[in-house]
Amino acid sequence: MKVWLGLGGLLLAAIVVGSYVGQTFASPLDLWRALQGDPSMSSRLLIEWRLPRVLAAALVGALLGLGGTIYQGVFRNPLAEPYLLGSAGGAALGATVALLVPMALSQVLLLPVLAFAGAWGATLLVIGIARVAGAVDAAGLLLAGVAIAAILGALRSFLMLALSDDTVSLQVVMSWVLGGIQTPGWSGIVLLLAISAACLALSLLLASRLDVLGLGETMATAFGLNIPRFIMIAVLAGSVIVAAAVAFGGLVAFVGLAAPHIARWLVGPLHRPLLPASALIGAIIVTLADAISRAALPPAEIPLGLITAVAGGPFFIVLLARRLRA
Amino acid sequence: MTVLAASHLVVKRNGATLLHDVSLSFGDTGSVAVIGPNGAGKSTLLKVLAGLEKPTSGSVRLGDRDLATISNAARARTIGFLPQHFEPHWDLTVRQLLQLGAERATRLAADALDRIRAQFELGGLDGRRWSTLSGGERARVLLATVLVVDPPILLADEPAAALDIRHRLDVIQALSVRGRERLLVVVVHDLDLAFSAFERVVLLADGEIVADEPAARLIGDPRLDSAFGVRFERMRVDDGWLLRARLTPA
């Protein structure tokens, strides 16, 4: 209980900090006044622009935490992560296609669908390659993921070079690639909140089977789990979550790796508490990282993905070193 | 009453025949040891009996139904399986492991967890993580995790192989007591243990059943020597025989 109160409090604090920083600083008092319906320009900006941005960052972080936890559970590997396994790269490729290739359908509809298709396809490809190579262990998966991510990155760059013109801004596409929270309107926030809640519910449905899977293939089968079918279901769910995160926040590295790790220290490895804890921690991390991205070099914004990569890369290296030594 | 029966099992993997036309059946109680040299197909047989692997041909019947037609969940409640190696991917506590074991049951007696803790002397271990347990503690925790739903059938693959002698006797003792009320089939490496703690012994070699006899009868059987490719000296002791293997002259 203490842990949950602590995480909730930290998230609230991160949101307050997130709304504090930016081109102009807004104290918690300003925020309070704005929330009371103060009609001044600065209050309006706070409500219309900064608060939605901060909340979007928190929700994207929560999705990244959930996605990372599911991937680690499915692959029974604490180094698995949507970004490293190419799933996020697949989603970004799908999003790029939706943004750059003129198609009959509306972008609003196409972007999430193609992002999902990309994430799902890339993940299945990585699983397939690792299985054909006979190595579904940490190294095999990561290497297959690195290869797929590189190929997808090249395809995406090619599309960007070949298809961008005056009508489609490269800037928009770049913001996906480097990771950056879109600033949605309040209707967008409501949509994102609904998606995140649905993703949390979806992942909680998988929780007990993820636990059983963690007992190893033989025990899981003996405990009645149909492993191939469950992995397919879980990867599908994970891809939906990754696609949602990428659609709203672009390619954000390492949050899906770090959040479940920290959550496991706090609440243990069972997935029913682990999933919501990872979501909260992911939300805290991304809210703070997004605040840094807006505050570090005003008036410019540092892309969010760069900040999480710089902060998360060393975290990954330490984990990798510890695992290889074990 | 026959509760578990295999008929004409053939298992082929990557061109090798691991089981070659194996048929055998088990009643609803009794303790059975499966012995045989390395590569005889003992583990494969056990996994097929447990429904964890599908035979290339042949079938397994559980009660009056084909095992392949029974739902995974029902199979998991009916057949407990104790693997040769168990290493959970996450460092779960003893309490969490028991919980996962208990979740197989549709309904569990209110005191089932307490009873299993008492039976395997897990009193002080509840909050301990798997990585901190000793080999003997791990074996007991694993047994408790599998047996917490009290499955009518327990199939165990060398559950005590990695243990020191006292813990090995402990585990085998706990298992063979179970054979009085339930069906117990165990792959055993230690032949003296197989013949002293089990009622019936199935001898497997090259994927075929060489002998399937009451333990007391099979121990004197020359097929034992030829299956293992050695000559056994049989030494009379208080409650049976001890085996000592000699290499046969080439």
What does this structure look like?
The complex is a heterodimer of chains A (326) and B (250). Chain A has 326 residues and is an all-alpha fold. Chain A has one domain: ABC transporter involved in vitamin B12 uptake, BtuC. Chain A is built from 13 helices and no strands. Chain A has helices spanning 2-20, 28-35, 41-75, 87-100, 107-132, 138-163, 170-178, 186-213, 217-222, 227-249, 255-267, 271-295, 304-325. With 250 residues, chain B is an alpha/beta fold. Chain B has a single domain (2-247), classed as 3-Layer(aba) Sandwich (Rossmann fold), CATH 3.40.50. Chain B has nine helices and twelve strands. Chain B has helices at 42-49, 72-78, 94-102, 112-119, 135-147, 165-178, 191-197, 215-218, 222-228; strands spanning 2-13, 16-27, 30-35, 57-62, 65-66, 79-82, 153-157, 183-187, 200-205, 208-214, 230-237, 240-247. Chain B has a six-stranded mixed sheet with strand order 6-7-8-3-9-10, sandwiched between helices. Chain B has a four-stranded antiparallel sheet with strand order 2-1-4-5, with helices on one face. In chain B, α3 (94-102) runs parallel beside α5. The radius of gyration of chain B is 18 Å and the shape is globular. The chains are: A mainly alpha (326), B alpha/beta (250). At the A-B interface, α8 and α9 of A face α2, β6 and α3 of B.
Structure, briefly:
The complex is a heterodimer of chains A (326) and B (250). Chain A is built from 13 helices and no strands.
